[in-house]
User: Which sequence fits this backbone?
């Protein structure tokens, strides 16, 4: 089955800088990859989807890249703000079942 | 609110109790899911329903019993749980089924806020 690795240690970034989060997967290359944001005590919220034939996707201050050779996706938040502090989850289609497989998530802290 | 409502938000139960978690979506979605989220672990897919028919049971113990009476409602019936079952239980829905790797199409999940379960 697919294994997803995200840098689960907390990532501290100074306000205004670019935060870069990493998602690595180990087995088959997925047809697409999704990123979600989760705040404490809440369910994840969908942010971006990128397909295997897309190198990059942007939405406002967010940018996602997808490198099927490296088996990696990078998630960037430019001009970061304290309100961007949250846990960010990477998700891929399940290998042997319907549904999404999620990584553990990266806890991002933007310091003023 | 996301359009997916879960109740109760918090539940404390003993190991011999029987309780149920409820999920309701008014998004017109056809697929619904139960996920379990424990501390320090990724979300674990438990059950998948498509047009109220169960398509996946991810080796979940029988003390968890799902029910999907229609495409808008999903229940998780709990009985004789163990302390290690304490977790955040998340319900999600999607317009159409998120298909396994290799199938075409892509759908995104809309999650509820979750039900925090504590088993004593």
Assistant:
């Amino acid at each position: 089955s697919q294994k997803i690795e995200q840098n689960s240690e907390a990532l501290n970034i100074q306000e205004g800088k670019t935060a870069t989060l990493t998602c690595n997967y180990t087995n088959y290359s997925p047809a697409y990859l999704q990123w979600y944001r989760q705040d404490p005590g809440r369910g994840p919220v969908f942010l971006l989807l990128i397909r295997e034939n897309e190198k990059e996707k942007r939405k406002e201050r967010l940018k996602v890249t997808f490198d099927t050779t490296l088996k990696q996706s990078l998630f960037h938040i430019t001009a970061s703000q304290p309100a961007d502090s949250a846990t960010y989850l990477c998700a891929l289609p399940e290998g042997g079942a319907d549904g999404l497989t999620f990584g553990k998530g990266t806890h991002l802290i933007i310091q003023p | 609110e996301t359009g997916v409502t879960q109740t109760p938000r918090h539940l404390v139960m003993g190991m011999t109790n029987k309780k149920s978690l409820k999920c309701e979506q008014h998004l017109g979605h056809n697929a619904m899911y139960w996920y379990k989220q424990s501390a320090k672990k990724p979300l674990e897919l438990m059950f998948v329903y498509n047009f109220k028919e169960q398509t996946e049971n991810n080796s979940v113990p029988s003390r968890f019993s799902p029910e999907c009476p229609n495409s808008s409602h999903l229940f998780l019936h709990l009985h004789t749980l163990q302390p290690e079952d304490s977790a955040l239980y998340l319900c999600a829905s999607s317009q159409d089924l998120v298909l396994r790797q290799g199938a075409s199409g892509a759908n995104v999940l809309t999650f509820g806020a979750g039900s925090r379960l504590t088993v004593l």
Q: What stands out?
A: Chain A has no helices and eleven strands. The mean pLDDT of chain A is 93.
